[in-house]
Amino acid sequence: MTLSDKAFEVLDTLDRQPICNQRQLARHAGISLGQVNYILKSLLEKGFVKIGNFRKSPNKSGYMYLLTPKGIHAKSRLAARFVTSKLIEYESLRGRLADKLQALEHKGHRMVAFVGPQVVKDFAEALIRERGLNLSLANRCKTWKDLKTVDAGFFDIVLLFDGSTETTAKISDATGIPRDKIVLLW
User: Fold this and answer.
1) Who contacts 9 (Cβ-Cβ below 8 Å, separation ≥6)?
2) How much is the average pLDDT of 115-132?
3) How far is Cα 150 from Cα 42, in angstroms, rounded to an integer?
4) Beta-carbon neighbour count of residue 55 at 10 Å?
5) What domain range includes position 46?
6) d(Cα 164, Cα 79) in Å, to the nearest integer?
7) Which phi and psi angles does 108 have, rounded to 5°?
């Protein structure tokens, strides 16, 4: 078994807190009990995890899963790989978002009503500033239904974080905003 993101979650959980059974490990790692069982067997075979016996101590449960020095090293390698892959993914998404924003500007749009999470709006605004785009995210709505409360004179395009062409048709019908004024972010 090559070490996966789920193996990283198991190693990380064992490193962060004392775990005395697989059910507890599954809950804290956020993966199924069956997956924990499979991953843990492999980690035990590789010598990354050991089972400590604490029956003689009255203050602790009978057994505890512990990371070995080899397991700590494996977790570090996995963490570095995980962070690198997330940074690559981040740069890709950042480029796609910047391209979308630049395309809106090139089509002559200036005032954008954004529908989606605040963190994405903040990210888009940072890219707008960084790239010197002549765009303004005039409004932010959590859901498209919030568009009903926004004066259409305050924006010339709606940018949807999540949706489909069916969603844009539904929004247009419900709000009166023309379909060509509703675009998908992705």
Assistant:
1) 29, 30, 31
2) 95
3) 56
4) 9
5) 5-85
6) 35
7) 95, 5
Task: Give yes or no: residues 169 and 111 share one domain.
Answer: yes
**DSSP character for 19?**
B
Q: Please report, to the nearest 10 degrees, the dihedral formed by the alpha carbons of residues 78, 79, 85, 86 taken in order.
A: 150
User: Are 72 and 36 contacting, i.e. CB atoms less than 8 angstroms apart?
Assistant: no
CA distances from residue 9 to 35, 58, 73, 85 in whole angstroms, order as listed:
11, 30, 14, 15
Q: Would you state the structure tokens that stand for residue 109, as one six-digit string?
A: 């749009």
Both tokens of residue 173? 């019908």
Domain C-terminal end among 20, 53, 85 = 85
pLDDT digit string, tens, across residues 12-57 = 999 999 898 999 999 999 999 999 999 999 999 999 999 987 656 5
Question: Residues 35, 1: contact at Cβ < 8 Å?
Answer: no
Indicate the pTM of the whole model. 0.68
**Share above pLDDT 90 across residues of the chain, in percent, rounded to a whole number:** 77
Could you tell me the end-to-end alpha-carbon distance of the chain, in angstroms, rounded to an integer?
35
Measured in whole angstroms, how far is the alpha carbon of residue 134 from the centre of its chain? Answer: 29
